[in-house]
Amino acid sequence: MSARILVVDDVIPNVKILEAKLSVEYYDVVTAYNGPDALKIASEQQPDLILLDVMMPQMDGFEVCRRLKADRQTSHIPVIMVTALSEATDRVQGLEAGADDFLTKPVDDLALFARVKSLLRLKMMMDEFRLREETSSELGVISMSDRKEEAIQRARILVIDDNEYSVRLIKELYAETYDTTLEPDMEEALIRLRGGDFDLAVISLDSANYDPLRLCSRIRSLEETRQLPILTLVDEADNDKLIKGMEIGINDYVMRPIDTNELIVRTRTQILRKQYQDRLRHNFHRSLELAVTDSLTGLYNRRYMSNHLDAMLQRARLDYKPVCVMIMDIDFFKPVNDTHGHDVGDEVIKEFSCRIATGVRGIDLACRYGGEEFVVVMPDTDISVALTVAERLRRHIAEKPFVVSRGRLTLDITCSIGVTVSQEQEQSDILLKRADEALYKAKKDGRNRVVVATSSVEVFQKSSESVAR
Fold first, then answer.
1. 265-320 pLDDT, tens digit each
2. Which of 213, 242, 216, 244 minimizes the C-alpha distance to 230?
3. For the segment 251-271, what is each residue's pLDDT rounded down to a tens digit?
4. Could you tell me where in the chain the CATH 3.40.50.2300 domains are found?
5. Which residues are identified as catalytic?
6. Which residues pair with 179 in a beta bridge?
């Protein structure tokens, strides 16, 4: 995958070496030789990843990383710190500053590209969700002000390890902050992961009783666990296994012997990222839902119904099955608004929608067509069944008064309904127009009735008599 990578180091030969290695792999490389320039370039050019030296004059890498992560424009950019420092305390300091990974100088090519590809994959996925969230916000579908600061809410962790010492250490370390489940068996672990809502899997890569890389691969291949973060425990001698794991899709690792502070910080980072990812995904699905539903009633909106009806008619032609459509209109709705106000009118519309939703069949599609007008699309339905459903809905509306204004007001509401059935090769606009003509006749003939329109010009009525009030 191609990407833009910012290389930051105050030593020119170091920059040139990394630039050459990355360019050979067809990455677009930009460079900076100090912290302030790096911050400016990151903000202006929005690289996909930053390789950041720690030991720099004027502003060290830790401070640069902190500022990158504090700026909303650059906080999502992955940062790999490239450093000669190898102490666990240095790694913890970098992780707390927001770094995603570390490489020790001199940089090993396999380790470099494994980490770069892993973080770029993650960023590409997160960018897609962020873009969708921003688009939804700009369209007014969701509000960015609804965002809450990410915080760990008693996350659930599954630890897969058959090393009793590290299991005991992890259990004690996680006890106060997380709900931890321990599982030494690979098959049982997969069952638990598929059935449980876990926020992180911690997997030992040196197990003697199962193949940990195969476990990681299966986690990534299953729909239920594909997005689950994986944190691995690795012996220093297992660098090849770690690199393979990065290619498979593990998110992070801690070297043995385990430094508890590093494990705490890396665990917290992965869980916060998972929660952020879950929020982006939730907002995406929420924006999809809001984009196709009416905000007042919760029924589908006109745009969704129109597209859905076209698809239904296309399928119906192939299956030689009819599609029926009914258009419903609340009788004398304007006087309700004029007399009692629009708040009461909204309450009537919401209650009307609830009665439609409970009165149609599971296969039917109910939508708010606009104002006080509603449409129900009934696939694989002949006209006699459609008439039965329409008449049931009419009675459901008319026979029980609407109680609004917190019980202070009772209104008698009725509706008029036009019904029709699709013909061969008929387009949706013709079908809806014919149903609308039937609705017009129902209103003209006295309201509170169902009228059926055939395919001919003639429109005939078949309904119960108007209910006296």
1. 889 889 988 888 888 777 777 777 777 888 899 999 998 898 888 888 888 888 78
2. 216
3. 999 988 888 988 998 898 899
4. 1-107, 138-289
5. 372
6. 156
